[in-house]
UniProtKB/TrEMBL annotation:
Protein name: Sigma 54-interacting transcriptional regulator
Family annotation (NCBIfam families): sensory_box
InterPro entries named among the record's database cross-references: AAA+_ATPase, AAA_lid_NorR, GAF, GAF-like_dom_sf, Homeodomain-like_sf, HTH_Fis, P-loop_NTPase, PAS
Keywords noted in UniProt: ATP-binding, DNA-binding, Nucleotide-binding, Transcription, Transcription regulation
Species this chain originates from: Anoxynatronum sibiricum
Domain called PAS: residue spans: 208-252
SMART domains tied to this protein: AAA, PAS
Taxonomic lineage: Bacteria, Bacillati, Bacillota, Clostridia, Eubacteriales
Sigma-54 factor interaction domain residues: 337-567
Amino acid sequence: MSQTAMSELREFKQEQAVKDYITRSHARSQEYGVELGRIYSSKILRGEALREKMDENRELIETAMPFLQQLCDFVRGSGFFAILTDWEGCILDIQGDDEVLREAARLEMNPGAYMHERHIGTNAMGTALAEKIPVQVDGDEHYVTAYHRWTCSAAPIHDPKGRMIGTLDLTGRSHLVHSHTLGMVVAAVNAIEQMLTIRQANQKLELARNSISTIIDAITSGIFTVGPRGYIKTMNKTASEMLGYKPEEIRGLHIASVVDNWENIQQNLEKGINYMEEEIDANGKNGRIHCTFSTYPVEYRDGEHQGVVCVIKEARRLRKIAHKMAGSRAVYTFDKIVGRNQQFLKLIDYAHRVSDSPSTVLITGESGVGKEVFAQAIHNASDRRDEAFVAINCGALPRNLIESELFGYEDGAFTGAKRGGQMGKFEWADGGTLFLDEIGEMPYDMQTNLLRVLETGKLFRVGGNKEIDVDVRIIAATNKDLRTEVEKGNFRRDLYYRLNVVPLELMPLRERKDDISLLVDYFITVKSMKLGKNPVMLSRDQIRRLTDYHWPGNIRELENAVEQIINLNTCRLWEQDCQIISGDLETTPQGNEIECLEEMERRHIERVYQSYNGNVSLAAEALGIGRNTFYRKAKKYQIDCSKTKQ
């Protein structure tokens, strides 16, 4: 077959195909009941409904707009206009020559008009949607007579998932029909679809970037990236807050202005030496920040470094997390302190009023009056309540360890030192409160070091040469008369005056006897719940006898006595073999009464010790006392602990 014949055959088949889809479209139009004389679309959106439709298709409109303008520019002055519809055939945008647009407007071909075959019969836009292919409709191929003046070329638009979301149409007067018009429309549609794909990819990239940014900002460590020339490129929210820089302020900021000795760090990084949790002082906008510093080089091709990711963690924040895990917190508050004695209530009010002051507090009083309870309550009423409360018993630490416990030590400071060194109690309490219990037992030579830290807020770790700033409020406590200790030469006079800024002397229990019944009720309730036993009921006479006792061990002794009463079912024992409470106290000498209490405590400790088969740790825990206290009482009562188990 000749080339001419083949060309004629292709044209015939193409014309036949056109006739086929026009024939199908006319049949549908007739089925829809579209009148031949119809001029306007039977469905036109206006007002709020049109605004909602435009909002629904905002992305399609924005993507297609430059291509509509390009089409119109190409055919400007030739009597054509371009139309964009959604998947239902609703006109979203129309652009072209003013004269032809006015003519289209007389037929209500405006945004909001539906060009679906159901509403206006056969037309390129509606038929392209129905047939799902590019189509050209010319002159009387339109179903309604009013459209015979037009020639229309339209192609469906698909989203990246292949769903049909609209059409693009180029319409002009019928005598201007040309086969190339449809080709231009198809080319524009292909460009729109590619742009939609690119736009979706960019949206996914933007979403991924925002997700990564959100994740990085949610990390509680400060993270910033440094380029190969040392300039900071990005910084997460935590780093920005730690260093005090706003996002726009990091542009052009060199890492050397934040991290000292950066040149040496960079040289080490080039040698493959990374930094991991190294302690440094970073230079923030508002001052220096003690933190840990880690580096993660960014590798490119062949292991070449193209910058580094730096991670900083504020030392105080790390300590705060560690405090929560280790339980370094105060649990008592002023509302948990039980009492109704007027003098005692004045003491509580006084302690409450000085809580917010940063001044050092010295709490004095006999053993067992609740000095640590008051210290914790003062901390919890202060503006440091969210920071650590660290307690250390100066009398319980061996003389050779107290310095390292208070001030910490560096790696290799002494034989047996922990690798990497260790922070002392002052650093652990940084930002919070340090409670120095039994301060009167502190060795004299250590008092000088303590005084220096209190006066300067700076310390050196054992074996270290780097000065460390600490912000700690000191609450000290003692059962000794420090004035007398000063006169004896056992306590430094200057340290005494440095500690005794806010003195707080707690009353012994014998001076607040009106609180004893209240405390007994409180301890019975608390101890019964803790021990899983039913609360005991005490008679008025039993309460009176408890009140008459002078309690040399104060509240701690009363608490232990109540626990013994609950454990030993004392309502029965009082009548059988114990003269602690049920004896005639009016005729029994006080010395005998004390001996009876001590005998009761001795038998109870011995019985608990034996029930745990000589395990001191378990026995002490069951009794609610420390191991050192257990040994002291065992020595006092001559309890044989020679077969002790740890």
